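Handoff note, outgoing to incoming analyst
You'll be picking up this chain. Sequence as last confirmed:
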Amino acid sequence: MVSLMTRIYPCGECAEHFASIVRDHAPTTETGPQLRQWMCKAHNAVNQSLGKPQFNCQFVDARWGGVECEGETACVLFGGPKGR
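Most recent structure output, in case you need it:
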């Protein structure tokens, strides 16, 4: 998924920059929280290069938390335990 993202950016310069971030700092993808932290840090690297403010990665789960599977149907629809 991350590799695909380096090729689908509509802006070629942005795609190259993101690809360099991925090369220099391989993503951690073992768990959802680890991936969200990596994405936050990658996002902040882009923001830094654009002179934009950094997002506090301590709050990444509050802003972009994982999908909660409360019922069996939701877990199946979103690839949770029953849908794997």
